[in-house]
Amino acid sequence: MPLVAMALVVVLLGAFLWLLHRNERDEEALGLIKDALWVEQNLHFQLTSDEDKLERLAEALSRETVDLRQFAAMARLVVNTNPAIERVLWLDAQGRSRMAEPPAESEAGLDEALDDKPGASPRGDAFRIARSSGLRAYGVPYRIDPGDTGFDAVFPLYRDGAFAGALVGVFSFEAMLTHHVPWWFAQRYQLEVTDLRGGVLGAKSRMAVPGATTGAVPGAAAGAAPDPLRSHIIPFDPPGHGVALVATAYPTESNATRTVLVVAIFGLTGSALWSLWSLRRHIAGRLRAEEALRAEHAFRKAMEDSLTVGMRARDLDGRITYVNPAFCRMVGLSAEEMVDRGPPMPYWLPEDLDRAEAAFHEVLAGRAPETGLEMRFRRSDGSRFDALIYEAPLIDAKGRHTGWMGSVLDITERKRAEELARQQQERLQQTSRLITMGEMASTLAHELNQPLSAIASYCTGCLNRLRSGQFDTQEVAAALDKLAAQARRAGLIVRRVHDFVRKSEPNVAPCSLSRVLEDCVGLMGADAARLGVRVELDAPAGLPMVPGDRILLQQVVLNLMRNGIEAMAKTPRARRRLSVSVVRSDGALLTAIRDHGSGIAPEIAEGLFSPFFTTKSEGMGMGLNICRSIVEHHHGRLWFEAAPDGGTRFLFSLPVCSDSLETAE
Predict the structure, then answer these.
(1) Rg of the Cα trace of the chain?
(2) How do strand 577-585 and strand 534-538 relate by DSSP bridges?
(3) Stretch 311-328: mean pLDDT
(4) Which one, 22, 320, 562, 637, has least CB within 10 Å?
(5) What share of the chain in percent tops pLDDT 90?
(6) Handedness of CA 441, 572, 624, 550 (dihedral sign)
(7) CATH number, domain 307-410, options 3.40.50.1000, 3.30.450.20, 3.20.20.140, 3.30.470.30
């Protein structure tokens, strides 16, 4: 019995070593496949990035006016910053080269039209496909240099719906592998790019590998088939046309197998006497480990059940692998209904599937925003809620990326509170405008009385002339012109007041800041004249538009002008001058409102923009705070500074409109 037992031990040991060796080979093969897939994805990512830059370059060429020097500079930048792109060509509608970067004086046929016959040349075939399909096309690999092989990516150009040529990017396989395959991969594997017949188009390493394709230079003939246990072939599409990536692992030498075998045989023989005792100790330790594992599991389960934040784990393919109870309560579904489920998810909104699908792919690509992603989900009962999702990589015990863990917060109440605060802010702004208008009511009544009195006088004079029968037509016409001018003046005052005090939703659109300042000076002119303040406006014509709400911007200017007028109450009348100016500065419009008052004391300067802070006996303390909120809402900045010869300058800057908005205006 002992001999039989020892023989069985030796047989089992041999079987164990064989299984161990096979497991190692399987792990190597699995690692080869993962690394090859990673490299293939990295090459596709770099290729996509290069194609996006070429596509933006093609969009620049599709415009009506093309600056050749600017295009050459852009093409040179693309070639210099993207090593995989050997050359950029601009072809006209007949396939003739209009420009090449870098210049290729030695390349034949640049000034000749491409042959339109199928199969005449790789570039001609790709040009013909891009012209007929209207989409980018890839050419068959060809020799671009004596020691290098590449392919063409052709982007069609259209102007006014007509085919105007193509932009061609020449990619090099050797440069692509040299710059985009990491060093650690080259230390482990040989990477080759092969064509449909097995010929090598490019290689990262030139070391001989048993069982790999022969010939490490581009265009070499096909060799023996690669060893499937040590090589992995991945189709490389795009560019397609039978191009494939072949990754072959380098052979590793190991002498540990023989040592392990000898040590195992003698160790098993010597351990036969104490194996039972060791087994008993092992079982006792395992029982203790299982008990500790159960306690740890219970502790973590209690922690998960107490969370109010939803947790959702997904694998690399996007299928749900785990959800915690908080997430189940959020969406009203059980864990069994969601685990192992792929897109579309049952809690996605039917009308928002495209956006949810796009966000799903962004997360799988590793481009989830660090600030979180806001989505709107629905529960099983049909109700909806707003969710803020934070995604993080899911790393296993071996340090491998196995998926994504998402933290889901229900922010419905928070968004409702933000909306309520926004509405309250709008009501406060409306109240502030009404208060400002009330303070100006008596002055505006006096301002309206002048044109109305003039209208009555001109009308009476005209009637008297007409009734007398003795009148001069030119004289009556002149009086009527003056009457109409006074009527327009009164109507302008009424329109300005009506536009300013009416309640409306914020309407952000391109508006003229010069007109806003003119309207505000018109509204405050009478009030300033009553207090002996001379208002000076410097708003040159031709300034660009600013994106904003005209009424809100009027509210800012009126508040600042009124503060400046009131600040000069103790200033001698000869120096009561309020200057309003606007200039262009660094892509923005800078507006300055300068008074000649007593200035702002240092002890109150720090809290000047704080809510409910005021130096007036009857003030609310919200005017400057509302002004700053309005300016910051328009992506601008509001501040003040002491004027050189006394007084204060309040300044605010607003960004100018883009070209598209200016054109629309």
Answers:
(1) 40
(2) parallel
(3) 87
(4) 22
(5) 4
(6) positive
(7) 3.30.450.20
